[in-house]
């Protein structure tokens, strides 16, 4: 069950990143984040009311609030790093986010077996290579590296926090709703400040009609990924769930290959293969 839900997380996050990347080519990244998360919050609100999730309110929701505060900071840092530096450097470095939940799992006493340790090493190596690390070119700015590391730490922290935010399915819906409300409030405040400084909030001519379903998909896929990761981490070792969930860059690369006809370099193809081998080792270990 852990492997299934963690791999589902990778699929959802990979597709959400791909969709978000396409949308930010036409609209400001901050606007894409706020609108997509707002749509997701609206859907979650309906689900919470329908399932009676409010009855699960308790102290654990503070973990969801914290995740909602950290998430936008991580996402904004990630987009800023992509704007400043080469994706071939930023994307692999961002996968270091897996270190946070894995560290938490080890701190809590989890001790993966030898086969799982090998799977973790192979999978992480594959994810880094699948990102297409650039071994040549101009030096990367220190600011880009710093922003990428901030985003990685933030994403990893959200991984760990959302796992602690609930223990039941209805509680998970409520936790995700609170997380998204907090994210929208935080992102909305940042967007307001950005507009006050003269940055346009909308693309020229506004959003096309086709953009709204796409924004909804990105937001809902991100929410669903948080949910499936929480389930994976609660039903198995956090170390395994975190590594399998971090395979999303492979999904993004394959989506770009399928929909945009982007060719994978040999190093990326090798990385995808290693990630698959590592996944099999983790699943069978």
Structure report:
Helix 5 packs antiparallel against helix 10 and helix 8 packs across helix 9. The protein is mainly alpha-helical. The protein contains twelve helices and no strands.
Helix and strand succession? HHHHHHHHHHHH
Strand fraction: under 5%
Which stretches are low in confidence, meaning pLDDT under 50 for 5 or more residues running? none
Q: Look at the structure and give the mean pLDDT.
A: 80
- The CA-CA distance between the termini, in Å, is 13 Å
* Count of beta strands: 0
- Structural category: mainly alpha
What is the overall silhouette?
globular
Sheet of most strands = none
Helix content: over 70%
Number of helices: 12
Rg (C-alpha, Å)? 18 Å
Keywords:
76% helix; mainly alpha; 285 residues; 12 helices
What are the SSEs and their pairings?
Layout: H1 2-23, H2 29-51, H3 61-84, H4 87-94, H5 99-107, H6 114-130, H7 142-164, H8 169-196, H9 211-234, H10 238-245, H11 248-260, H12 266-284
Helix pairs in contact: 1-9, 1-10, 1-11, 2-8, 2-9, 3-7, 3-8, 4-7, 5-7, 5-10, 6-10, 6-12, 7-9, 8-9, 9-10
What's this, in brief?
The chain has 285 residues and is mostly helical. Helix content is 76%, strand content 0%. The chain is globular and about 55 Å long.
């Amino acid at each position: 069950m852990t492997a299934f839900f963690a791999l589902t997380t990778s699929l959802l996050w990979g597709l959400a990143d791909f969709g978000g990347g396409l949308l930010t080519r036409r609209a400001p990244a901050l606007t894409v984040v706020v609108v997509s998360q707002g749509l997701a919050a609206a859907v979650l609100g309906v689900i919470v009311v329908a399932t009676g999730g409010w009855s699960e309110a308790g102290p654990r929701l503070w973990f969801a609030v914290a995740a909602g505060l950290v998430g936008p900071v991580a996402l904004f840092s990630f987009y800023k790093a992509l704007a400043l530096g080469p994706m071939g450097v930023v994307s692999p470095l961002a996968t270091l986010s897996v270190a946070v939940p894995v560290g938490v799992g080890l701190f809590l006493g989890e001790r993966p077996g030898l086969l799982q340790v090998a799977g973790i090493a192979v999978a992480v190596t594959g994810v880094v290579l699948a990102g297409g690390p650039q071994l040549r070119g101009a030096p990367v700015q220190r600011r880009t590296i710093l922003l990428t590391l901030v985003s990685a730490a933030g994403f990893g922290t959200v991984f760990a926090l959302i796992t602690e935010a609930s223990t039941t399915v209805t509680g998970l819906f409520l936790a995700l709703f609170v997380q998204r409300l907090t994210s929208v409030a935080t992102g909305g405040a940042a967007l307001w400040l950005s507009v006050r400084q003269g940055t346009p909030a909308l693309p020229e001519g506004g959003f096309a009609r086709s953009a709204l379903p796409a924004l909804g998909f990105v937001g809902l896929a991100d929410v669903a990924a948080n949910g499936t990761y929480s389930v994976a981490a609660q039903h198995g070792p956090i170390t395994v769930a975190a590594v399998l969930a971090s395979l999303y860059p492979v999904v993004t690369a394959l989506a770009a290959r399928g929909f945009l006809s982007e060719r994978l370099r040999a190093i990326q193809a090798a990385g995808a293969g290693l990630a698959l081998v590592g996944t099999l080792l983790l699943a069978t270990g």
